[in-house]
Design goal:
EC number (chains A, B): 2.2.1.1
Subunit structure (chains A, B): Homodimer.
CATH topology of the largest domain in chain A: Rossmann fold
Protein name (chains A, B): Transketolase
Number of domains of chain A: 3
Number of helices of chain A: 25
Organism (chains A, B): Brasilonema sennae CENA114
Number of strands of chain A: 21
CATH class of the largest domain in chain A: Alpha Beta
CATH architecture of the largest domain in chain A: 3-Layer(aba) Sandwich
Helix content of chain A: 40-55%
CATH superfamily of the largest domain in chain A: Thiamin diphosphate (ThDP)-binding fold, Pyr/PP domains
Oligomer: homodimer
Strand order of the largest sheet of chain A: 10-11-9-12-13-15-14
Radius of gyration of chain A: 28 Å
Shape of chain A: elongated
Distance between the termini of chain A: 88 Å
Family (chains A, B): Belongs to the transketolase family.
Chain lengths: ~675, ~675
Amino acid sequence: MAVATQTLEELCINSIRFLAIDAVEKAKSGHPGLPMGAAPMAFVLWNSFLRFNPKNPKWFNRDRFVLSAGHGSMLQYALLYLTGYDSVTIEDIKQFRQWESKTPGHPENFMTAGVEVTTGPLGQGIANGVGLAMAEAHLAAKFNKPDAKIVDHYTYVILGDGCNMEGVSGEACSYAGHLGLGKLIALYDDNHISIDGSTDIAFTEDVSKRFEAYGWHVQHVAEGNTDLEGLAKAIEAAKGVTDKPSFIKVTTTIGYGSPNKANTAGVHGAALGGDEIKLTRDNLGWEYEPFVIPEDALKHWRKAVERGANLEEEWNKVFRDYKGKYSEEAAELERYLSGKLPDGWDKVLPTYTPEDKGLATRKHSETCLNKLGAVLPELIGGSADLTHSNLTELKDSKDFQKGQYQNRNVHFGVREHGMGAICNGIALDQSGLIPYGATFLIFTDYMRAAIRLSALSQAGVIWVMTHDSIGQGEDGPTHQPIETLASLRAIPNLTVIRPADGNETSGAYKVAIEKAKQNDPTLLAFTRQNVPNLAGTSIEGVAKGGYTVVDSEGTPDLILIGTGSELSLCVTAAEKLTAQGKKVRVVSLPSWELFEVQDADYKESVLPKAVTKRVSVEAAASFGWHKYIGTEGDTVSIDRFGASAPGAVALEKFGFTVDNVLAKSKALLG
Amino acid sequence: MAVATQTLEELCINSIRFLAIDAVEKAKSGHPGLPMGAAPMAFVLWNSFLRFNPKNPKWFNRDRFVLSAGHGSMLQYALLYLTGYDSVTIEDIKQFRQWESKTPGHPENFMTAGVEVTTGPLGQGIANGVGLAMAEAHLAAKFNKPDAKIVDHYTYVILGDGCNMEGVSGEACSYAGHLGLGKLIALYDDNHISIDGSTDIAFTEDVSKRFEAYGWHVQHVAEGNTDLEGLAKAIEAAKGVTDKPSFIKVTTTIGYGSPNKANTAGVHGAALGGDEIKLTRDNLGWEYEPFVIPEDALKHWRKAVERGANLEEEWNKVFRDYKGKYSEEAAELERYLSGKLPDGWDKVLPTYTPEDKGLATRKHSETCLNKLGAVLPELIGGSADLTHSNLTELKDSKDFQKGQYQNRNVHFGVREHGMGAICNGIALDQSGLIPYGATFLIFTDYMRAAIRLSALSQAGVIWVMTHDSIGQGEDGPTHQPIETLASLRAIPNLTVIRPADGNETSGAYKVAIEKAKQNDPTLLAFTRQNVPNLAGTSIEGVAKGGYTVVDSEGTPDLILIGTGSELSLCVTAAEKLTAQGKKVRVVSLPSWELFEVQDADYKESVLPKAVTKRVSVEAAASFGWHKYIGTEGDTVSIDRFGASAPGAVALEKFGFTVDNVLAKSKALLG
């Protein structure tokens, strides 16, 4: 094929392909196959449909684009470069997959403007897309007026076979169908190849039929390599269906254009190699040097800059008009977008004294959520089918349902992983919403990949986890967290807080809300069972992660360190030891992460190095506690699986009693 | 309704209902709704189809029954009691959900004979069922002869709405459809209620259509409360379809029989209460005291004992005949079932010297797997679409596919969680198979719930995890484990091993195989990148979890503790420090769990308390390491997310260098 035969469209499409081929070749690492096959659909979408402004990647009313098949990252980097984003230059593309480059192995929203969410772990992106579409639906229902549609954009996702095999995508897409999210449009790159070879070896289901079963509008573009008109018509038709999300199966050839490697797993995740690249250049009539884009193509692509500026300007006019007519709503939206909290928001958080009735911290959590929900309309979330166990309902709102998107109580169904990825999507919409997702603490295991991604991708989600120990009781070891707190504390950038009582629950929410606005997630662990309100606990104390709640005269002989429901055991044990003439300090350590970032002096003031007799008390694994108890300390902990029994029985049988704290303390004191 | 009008069948069915009602009432905890609604299908299945021997719950050729909706555990306990298992007496039922009872909150295979797998975390049971059916298919293809079908049984699963919402079930069922597992029959208790209320609020997809899309044979019994004949016909028809798994949607009423609570979430997970129980007794004509089963019903149910004895005896005859004709195969099957390993099996594990070429430990893993696969035909497994990255292919076997079940290379597809639950099912088939499942270490996050269940439910699986650090390289932080090792080490009963080289990889597999036969899982973490073979490493050392590989003369001044790819940094640093006159010991600590169970003298001999200057070196989070480095030690570790770059660059940038080990060592040595 000679270059002369290439249409402008083909030049534009081949620009994507060769940027991917050349970048992967230079890095000797990466996935050229997907960009080569998906280039036509990406061209049609970005050239004819996607509304965005390359010079303002954060323009609020932009369409959201998610490359769920994140290993094809060069597709996205090519699009960002070609359409004129400042975040990805040709030099950046030459640095593909290199240290600190703007073009890491998988799309990372925190590295590259124009990337909405971090993808790569398969299935997450499409589930994030459901969250993005839910955010749009909510904001549109809340802010739009009959004469002013200020929230009006689509979420487009390109996903692959791998995404469709992952359970998380099934969960989220089933829910998207339930919600009838008409502005969610997914393009399925049906290339029949995954890493191990043909999908025939493991994945022969009828994917389209499955999406129909979910309640999606389903189409098929059979000639996805070449049928640009068919692609455009399908997207147009998808936009026309407003009461269902759309699934467009686009049959393509992975590595399209490579004479020997197209339609093989060999082109999925490895460089083509010099010889094959030459053959591919010949085959596609591409006579340009590596990283060189023909002027015609670049000029055409770059029309996106002017188009985008116009789109944003049009929207600005609409918004100015809106602001004139609906100043209050406009001010609220502007606050949302600013990331600011309303003045005095935290004044609603209750405080308690020991005289106040002891309640489960999940009950205190319910109070906080409801008080915060009243002053923070951006709070939106719910539970994975445990609403009345997690106590996460906002009583002054109603259910977020199809056609009722203005409401804030989300029923995720028994879909923890989907919930996690959806919450990440809502947060990464960057429109100021604060999503929360709830289940039993143990079931963070089902959604761990999404929780980790919230921490990595700076998604300001609040994870509300109840039934946080063997105190959970009768449900038994399948439902009782043991190692769960440790496994979550180990995740970088995730703040885990396990409050001891009412004051500490308020403190935990204060931190969580502030962190959410700073784009950091927080995980809160609450008890099922009642706990007393303690003297000395405070909102301010929680903010420091660890603090002294009971102190001795002079240097203590012993420090008891407790969290959550076990802090009260420490306090009672300390009283008894003090009565016996011992000098005992009790430290509450609701959040290791918050404590670790305090300055050295503060940490030393709470846990003086000289005091080596220390006992930690937490109804969970001892794993990690040696950092605080040192080589001479001891733990009251549980390093085996739990057991089915009433919660109080389980706690006692496993040694979470004042007597056991006293026994371990006395053994240390000698 | 008067009792006189009850048929024998109704009496039998109501026996289940009232055992559930009364047990939950006594415990004031539990889920009566499912047993009340699913009692008819359970009766039909257990009375007319299920082939089992109550007096020998481990009879090899029994049909497997899984209650995937494990919260309805009283259904299963009622069935075990009524059909005459010794494991559940009426006294046990009265102890429902109490400390150390045989009737815990959710079915636990390790507590109650007759329970095949541990359920409760939703979706796991049906996915375990896929594994059980795969085990049957494999053993049948391997051992059956045209004149002797010694492996010939079904796997039946009852699952609910919650199971169907979970992604793990979707993954496993898609794969079951691909494999055409004709002897897997799932009964879907379609009761339209989950904890939060009607499934209308979150789950309105067409489940049957989805299963059709997966390639299952799908039926519907519309009157599941009463249509016993329809239920029987459907199960009969399902058995008749031999090339597809069967899905029978059975529409039922949760809490059937309760005048005020049937068909409400109120009966899902709480006791009915005395008044409602009285009304339910009246409504169903049940005139018996709590925990009393009418003689006629019990007598009918208990026919299962004689039926079961006959079934097993018939099979014994077939097997005796088989043994006569096919002594070799019979001996092999008997070895499988004995849990024994063939003599000298571990002699195939290779050893290495420092002169041998350094390879990635994943490459050593491939060698071990293949050598073991040749002597252990019970080894069966594969990867979640990363076969040629995980290097898990058994080269002398072929792909396990529909109609090719005798093969041992399983292609799970991009379905980590499904793979995990399937491997658990294969192990819990208790037929001696050793399943292994592989992916990148980071993606244990996707399958953590299944890994935890392997540890809890004593499933002897080998989890083969490669690309175990930031040495993974270019894929970046979404693919680079940081906190992953810590989060896995924290799981009770799971042995995690991170070998340093060829010898340690052999040692890791020796432990893993032995543990699998003892019904304990092991997780192996392997490098992507090459590592040298070190002097002093050994198979025996790995078995102890930690051991000295380089020692000083006399008491060391400093101990360097390394694992996996970082052990070689320790060895090189020690050489340099020794040359500078320091006394340095290097300890390899491939498995914390194995080290912890050594006696105190041994542990002291490796890590003497008196030596407080210690540096751990592991390309992972420091979380948990303070147990070994103490208060005066230091770590070479990474407590932030990784970054996309070539692996060697990432390792260097994050400080995993000999120089950094030396710098931290010298800082401690002063």
